[in-house]
Amino acid sequence: MKKVSIAAALAGTAMLPGVGHAEHHALSDYELIDRAELFGNPVASQGRISPDGKWVSWIAPDDGVMNVWVAPAANPDDGKVITDDRHRGISNHFWSTDSKYVMFAKDNDGDENFHVYASDPRTGETRDLTPVADGARAQILGVSRDRPGVILVGLNERNPQLTDLYEVNVETGERRLIAENPGYAAWITDNTYAPRMAMVPQPDGGMQAVYLNDDMTPGELFADIPSEDMLSTNVVGFSRDNKTAYLIDSRDRNVAAGVAVDLTTGERRVIAEPTQADLSGILTDNETYEPIAYSVNYLKDEWTPLNEEAAAEIAFLQNNLEGEFSISSRSEDDNTWIVYEGAAEAPGQYYVYDRTADTLTPWFATRPDLADAPLQPMHPLELKSSDGKTLVSYLTLPPGSDPDGDGRPDEAVPMLLWVHGGPWARDSYGYDTIHQWMANRGYAVLSVNYRGSTGFGKDFTNAAVGEFAGKMHTDLTDAVDWAVAEGIAQEDKVAIGGGSYGGYATLIGVTFTPDKFACGVDIVGPSSLATLIESFPEYWKPFLAGTWFRYVGDPSDPEARAAMIERSAISRIDDIRVPLLVGQGGNDPRVTKPEADTLVAAMQAKDLPVTYINYPDEGHGFQKPENRLSFFAAMEGFLGECLGGRVQPIGDSFEGSSAEVLAGAEYVEGLEDVSSGG
Questions:
Q1: Which of 222, 268, 276, 668 is deepest in the core (most CB within 10 A)?
Q2: Residues 510, 524 contacting (CB under 8 angstroms)
Q3: What dihedral angle (degrees, nearest 10) is formed by the CA atoms of 71, 72, 78, 83?
Q4: Is 620 one of the annotated active-site residues of the chain?
Q5: Is residue 250 flagged as an active site residue?
Q6: Where are the domains of the chain?
Q7: Catalytic residue (choose from 115, 620, 657, 658)
Q8: Averaged pLDDT, groups of 10, the chain, 678 residues long
Q9: 588, 617, 653, 657: which one is catalytic?
Q10: Exactly one of 45, 453, 500, 657 is catalytic; which is it?
């Protein structure tokens, strides 16, 4: 089999790259970073070690497609590819607990109907462990050391809305039914895969976690989770003996804490009680599974140890790494950790941490070609909304614009407001491709954790109830006003863009506040909240009451439906006065293609400037590098026309992509040359 050497990726990884601030330089003094270096496949990613410590694995290109590679841990340069995907690539992988197989989940062209696969690292044989009917999906629900050779899988083959539990023998592929789902939103299983509890939806949108009887009927109440705590309270694991449950829990408090519950006595013990932001990560003891450290991400991600041994480990990593870090995987004996380090000016570096020898050895950098690129600092900010809420935000400035490094350019520059999806997610500090790309082209880039974002306490998340196209959007425009007042952004040259909810926010921006933005980039954004919810996949329906219905409304209620359409761009097409670029995945199960089709048709009927690119082999976002490169080439040209920044010509960026330019090729220079329609 073909071998790959990743030794070249190790050079120059000890220092974080960047441009000093000692003297002033014009933007033109800084190289134009090639889009392919930003949006093409990484050299390698997702480093792992097998539980027995004998193998390492990673994902890297093979003939341009991301596949799984393995090598002996003693000689990581002796790599071989063991999967043979020739289409969209593999984006995740993990080891079976007996170290016999590398496993991954994969869907079909972005439809999110995943299957689970196992590959033999010795032979490269790959098998589908979940051959289900078309339209069904498999979820990996458990991979436990206490059940070697067996994984726990959820399948909705019997009922599209409900997940049944199965054990799957990785060696033989044999599937055994554990429990049919009588109507639970989710199962809670222990380390032996035994169903211990289930989540039962409540009329108010909350959930009750109930113990299960032997026949899987609901038993006593374990936890009553009101709707306001739904997004920040859940069971995250069990102790090794399955006698203690560990929760992230926001009930009776604002910021989610770490809690241990004795399942015999019911006694609750608070393990970690952060104050500024929700508990976000947990590191557990490899033998007892008891939490030994936790992380909290406010402006940046920070780890706190819970015992002396963990304190020493975290101190060692902090003293030897410059950026944020996380533990990617660990050997079963806990002697070897794979550690990931990332920072705004460094796209990602993997290390092998030998805990016995106290050595931290560089393994590979994900994008070594960017080691000498003029990547820019990201500035964490605490902005204030007009009604006094703190909006944790992140700003990146063009190279040469801020010679003293104070986070303010010498002169105002064009700006892109880049809005995260979800909305129940968040922006964070670190390397961000969009931020670095757009800054390199001459734009300030601002990302704002608007109300509804998760991680900052349930009060902040719940402040978004009823505020789609309301205060959620006002938070974004408040941030734009701040950037203009601070001399960061040119008032008449601010664009808005984003994916999913970020696409919705873009559409709201160019319809509800058309004077605020010079143009917009909508990637898989819904044009109607009502039809968005009506088209959700069946397996989302058990969770809708506590999320979409609560925050937005139930479209089956005529009054609520009318209000939802009023808060949608489709009802305000006449208000659009600026150019719009729309990107869509033809197989997107979350925001379906009719959302984009309807919007674009309405704009075309009024001769409004809209460019529309569809990818028939993509879902909720663009996974194939050829598709990413083509869309972002169009986006770069589009923003160049709108904001006046630097532009790398489209050139051959559409080569190999499935792009269908369905409208508005004439609005982007070079797009008509590659257009397949419109």
A1: 668
A2: no
A3: -20
A4: yes
A5: no
A6: 232-298, 378-605
A7: 620
A8: 33 34 75 96 97 97 97 94 94 96 95 96 95 93 95 97 97 96 97 97 94 96 97 96 98 97 97 96 96 97 96 96 95 97 94 96 96 97 98 98 96 98 97 98 98 98 98 98 98 98 98 97 98 96 93 97 98 97 97 98 97 97 96 98 97 96 96 71
A9: 588
A10: 500
